[in-house]
Design brief:
This protein is mainly alpha-helical and 86 residues long. The chain contains 5 helices and 2 strands.
Length: 86
């Protein structure tokens, strides 16, 4: 069981996901499916895949994707365990 005072081993994985998605072109808009595919390639845990799967359909510039992911993370109460993204 994870103690509320300790971040998860997966802390920062969502930030790596966002960085990977926008590595080649930081200003482009990416479709949700690209984020899902990258999450699978990065082999995210089930909890983090749940976060990504909750993204609404659409295309995302980095700022909007981060807002959406942070909203989902916060709604689950996982910000401390997994970190937020920027």
């Amino acid at each position: 069981m994870i103690s509320p005072s300790n971040p998860s081993e997966e802390y920062g994985e969502l930030q790596r996901l966002v960085d990977d998605v926008y590595r080649t072109n930081p200003s482009r808009a990416v479709p949700r499916v690209d984020v899902l595919v990258r999450a699978e390639i990065n082999d995210l845990s089930d909890d983090l895949m749940e976060v990504v799967n909750l993204l609404p359909a659409g295309n995302y510039k980095r700022f909007r994707l981060c807002d959406q992911l942070n909203s989902i993370i916060t709604a689950h109460g996982w910000a401390y365990l997994y970190g937020t993204v920027e």
